[in-house]
Amino acid sequence: MRAWGEKIYDTIVVYAPKYLDGKRYQVVDIYYSGVGILRELSPEEMEEAFQKRLAKQSQGKEIPA
């Protein structure tokens, strides 16, 4: 029996950490199975999506998470 996580991703690549101004940063690439390319939202896009969700919720149009 396969673990649940094996069904949703093919590979996880963890890069060596880098330090900048005393803070540790580390890049992680996750290759999902059958999903395609996912791009993370910019802070502006995230705020816009959040505001749209709040507006729909206030109108009584609940959106499942």
Question: Can you walk through the features of this model?
Answer:
The chain has one domain. It is 25% helix and 26% strand. The chain has one helix and four strands. Strands 1-4 form a two-stranded antiparallel sheet. Strands 2-3 form a two-stranded antiparallel sheet. The radius of gyration is 18 Å and the shape is flat. The mean pLDDT is 81.
Summarize the structure.
With 65 residues, the chain is of the alpha+beta class.
Shape: flat
Could you tell me the number of beta strands?
4
Structural class by secondary-structure content? alpha+beta
Strand order across the biggest sheet? Answer: 1-4
Q: Mean pLDDT, nearest integer?
A: 81
For this entry, give a set of tags.
65 residues; alpha+beta; two-stranded antiparallel sheet; 4 strands; 26% strand
Secondary-structure map:
Blueprint: E1 9-14, E2 18-20, E3 23-25, E4 28-32, H1 43-58
Antiparallel strand pairs: 1-4, 2-3
